[in-house]
Design brief:
The protein is of the alpha/beta class and about 260 residues long. The protein is built from 10 helices and 9 strands. The radius of gyration is 18 Å and the shape is globular. The relative contact order is 0.13. This is SDR family NAD(P)-dependent oxidoreductase.
Amino acid sequence: MNHPLAVISGGSSGIGLACARLLGGEGCRVALLGRDEARLAAAAGALRAEGIAVEARCLDVRDGPRCARVVDALAAEFGPPLWVIASAGIVEPGFFLDQDPALLEEQVATNLLGTCHLVRAAAPAMAEAGRGHIILVSSGAGLFGVAGYGGYCATKFAVRGLGEVLRIELAAAGVGVTVAVPPDTDTPQLAHELSRRPRAIAAFAAGGPPLSAEAVARHMIRTARRGGFLSAPSWKLRAIAALGDLVRHRLAAIQMRLLVGRRAP
């Protein structure tokens, strides 16, 4: 196909933008979806300057009906997506009993429901075409619980669960599904998160230096092309995914020791 379509939510920065640069460099027409109009325009302009075919659509993925309209219009003009990458997400650290419940609702609306809206909008055309790749961006926090990240972990566990179901349901239609579980990644979102990360858990939550968005994007796309389900770009996360419950119980015990003496409100 001439310029197959890649639809990327959260495409104006971070992992989404890195995916757009990689796929656009291979000849895809990238449709960037983002809710910050200024940042979206800047990202689209930078990609066009690199010779990449770009469509930019200001969209908040929390709005399901508008998400459907935008994706339908893109598919009608450029054909069914070959790639759909659900990268839009937010993180608001804070201990569960301390935190404003509205912040939990915002994370659910963006990270989980926004992902559902994008996939529901794009997958029917992909299934009808009988081809394509869907990548859902979860997190290392979608593999094990991290204190101070109740809302974020809940949504990222849910995204991983959604991916497991979609992988089964879309296989017969020829649509592959991959779930990415990156560690800390050098993005604007990480800068926001670090300023709010609870001090008692900060050293544990960091887990090492952050990866670049480009490294995470390369691993995601390579895993999807190979038909892999879980894209874990660090050996630690691959070990946690492989060893499952044994490692999760050990990590929980470590965190409990770190929080000894802390009192719930």
